[in-house]
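User: Assemble these into one structure.

Assistant: Restating your components, then the assembled model:
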Amino acid sequence: MSFLEIKNINKTFVNHQALSDVSLSVPEGKIFGLLGPNGAGKTTLIRIINHITLPDSGEVMFNGEKLDAKHVMQIGYLPEERGLYKKMKTGEQALYFAQLKGMKRSDAMEKLKYWFRKFEIEGWWNKKVEELSKGMQQKVQFIVTILHEPKLLIFDEPFSGFDPINVNLLKEEILNLKKNGSTIIFSTHNMASVEEICDNIALINKSKKVLDGDVNEIKQQFKENVYDLHFKGSFDKFSASVTTDFKIENIRKENGNTICRVKLLNGTNTNQLLTAMLQYGEIVGMNEVIPSVNDIFIRVVERENKS
Amino acid sequence: MNKIILIIQREYLARVRNKTFIILTLLAPVLMAGFIAVIVYLSTLESDKSQTILVNDHSNLFKESLSDTKNIKFTFADKLNDDMAKKLITEGNYTALLIIPDSIQTKRLNLISENQVNIGTKMYITKQIEKKLRHDKLKSMGVDPDIIDEVNPEISIRTIKINKEGKEEISSAEAALGIGYIASFLIYMFIFIYGAMVMRGVIEEKTNRVVEIIISSVKPFQLMMGKIIGVALVAFTQLALWITFGIIIMFAAQSFMGDTANVQEQMIQTQGMSPEVQAAMNNTTFNDIMTPILNLPIALILFSFVFYFIGGYLLYSSLFAAIGGAVDNETDTQQFMLPITIPLILSLIVAQTVMQNPEGPVAFWFSVIPFTSPVVMMMRVAYGVPEWELILSMLLLVLAFIGTTWLAAKIYRIGILIYGKKFSYKDLWMWLKFKG
C-alpha cells in the first residue's frame, strides 16, 4: 500500500518548468530513494510534499487523504540546505523546533534528553550552536527532524558533512526508523548508500520522472547479459577464437586468476559460453554482472539527455 | 496561532537576552545623562573661573559702566600706553586687555589676550559699552536719564489659546514643538533601528539556512509576522526601559538641582531678598513651563504616539523583511534600501517645515500620506489637528500597512527559498505576480 501518492504534478517557476507531470507512489514502511542530477526538480518535489510550495496542478495524497497543512506535523524534513541559529543554545533550539512541530514542551524535553544521550551530545545542551563541531550540529539537526516521530521522513542528502563513523550511526538509525514503521524518502547523490538502504527508487531528470520501481527489479531490467568469467589459463587463445556470439568488454587479473567480462550476443546462453571456454583453461567461477544503481543512473540520464 | 506565539517568543528572547542589547539599553540613558552632566559641569567650571580684564580707556568714559560681575573684574589702567599694557598681558597678570580709543566713533575696540576670551565675557563687554553709548547719546539729545532707565524692553509673551466655548488655556508653541519633535524623532529612529533589525534577522535565517526547517513547520507569513511582532516587543521594551530610566534620572537630577537651589537661596538671602519672594518667583517660572505642557492634549498625544509608532513600524518593517528575504547578505541590501529610506528621511526633513507651519498644505499632505505620516503627523498632533485629518491619516496608515505586509509577504515567501542569486527589481516584480 502506498503511503504517499503523487499524481501528475506540474510546477512552473518564473522562467522554467521545475516538474512536469510527475507521478510517484511511495510505499508504506519502505525507504524510497529520490535520485536525479542537480537541478532536476527533486528539491521542488520535496518542497511540495512538505507543503512549502504548492503545485500548479496535480495532487498529493498523504496516507489516503489530500495533502493539507495539518499533515506537515506528521512529516520530518531534513533539508539539504540546513542550519541552526548559531547564537541560540542547543537544547533550547531543539525544544523550539520540536514545539514548532506541535510537540508539548515536556514531551519534547524528555525525548530530547534520550536522543542527546544516545548521540553522546548531552554535555552540549547549554552550549551555543556555534561552539559545536559540524558533525554535532548535524546530529542535533537529525534529532530535531525525527523527534516528533513523524510517519513520513524526508532526508535530503543526510550524510553530507558526516564522518564515516557517524554515517554508520545515521544509517543504523534510519533503518531503525524504517523498522518502526516510518516511511522514508531519501534524496541523494550518494549511490552507494542508495543501494545499501533503499527499497524503491525514482529517478527524476529535467523535471520528468524517467524511472521508478523496486531497486532489485530495476537492476534486473537493466542487466545486459554480461558475465564475469574467472579462470586459470591462457586468455590469448580464447580471444583469438572468440566468435561473433561473445563480446569481450574487459579483462583484468586478480589473485592469479583472469577475470574476463563477456557480453552474450545473438541469444547465446551461459552454457554456450562455458562450452566455448572449457578447452582454453580451468574455469574457477562465473557470475552475472548486475548493474549498480550508479551505472543505471548514468546510463538513463545520458540516454535522456541525448534524446 | 500557537506557533506564531512561539516564534514571537523566540525572536523576542533571542534579542532581549543579547548582551549588546542589554548593554546598549542600560548604557544609553547613562551615557546621555553623563553627557549632559559633563556639559553642565564644564559650563559651571567656565563661569566659576574669574577673569581680570585690564581696561586702557583713552576716552575716560566707561569707568562707571564697566562694573564688575561675579566672574569678571575690571581694572582700569591709568596713563599707560598700549604697548606697556600689552606687556602686562604677556606677563600673565590679566586675562585680557581692553583698549578703548579716544574717540569711540569708529565703534571698534580691541580686546587683546593670550588665550581666546570666552564668548560670554565678550558679549558682556559689548552689551555694557553699547548701553553706555546709547545712554549718552539719548542724554545728549535731552532725554531725562530716569526715562532712559525706565525703557526696559525685556518682555515675555504668554500664548493663550481660546476655543469655541470661550475657554482659555495657556498654551506654549515651544512645548508643542518640543513634544512633537521628540515624538516624531523617536518614531523615526525606532523605525530605522528596528526595521533594520527585522531585515538582519531575516538575512540571518537565510544565510544560516534555518529558514527551510522552520517553514516546513509554519507558513512563511507566520514566520515573518512572528519576527516583526517579536522585534516590535523588543522596541517597546527598550522604549519603556528608557522612559523608566529617564524618569529616575530626572528625579535624581531634581534632587541634585534642589541642592543647588538651596545654595542660591542662601545667596539671595545674603543679598537681602526675602525667601518668600524668591519662592514665588520660582513658582511662577515652574508653572509657566508646566501649565502649557499639561494643557497639551496629553491623552491624544500618547494615543497618537503609540498608534503611529506601531503603524509606522509595521508599514516599514514588512518592507525591511521583504528586502531581507530577497538578498543573501547585508551588502546586497543597498539597492533595495533606497525606496525605503528616502520617504523616511524625507519625512524628518518635512517635519522641520511643519514645525514652522503646522497647518499648511505641506503639513497636510505629508501627514496624510502613509509613508511619511507617522513622523510628520506626530509633529502636528501637539499643535492640534482637525479630527478628520487625524482619522484620515490613521485610516490610510492602516490600509497601507495591510497592503505593504501583503506585498512584502509575497516577495519574502519566494525570496527566502532561493539562495545564492542576486535579484533586480524586475525579479521582485515577477514574484509579486507569481502565484502559489
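Chain A touches chain B through 32 residues (CB under 8 Å).
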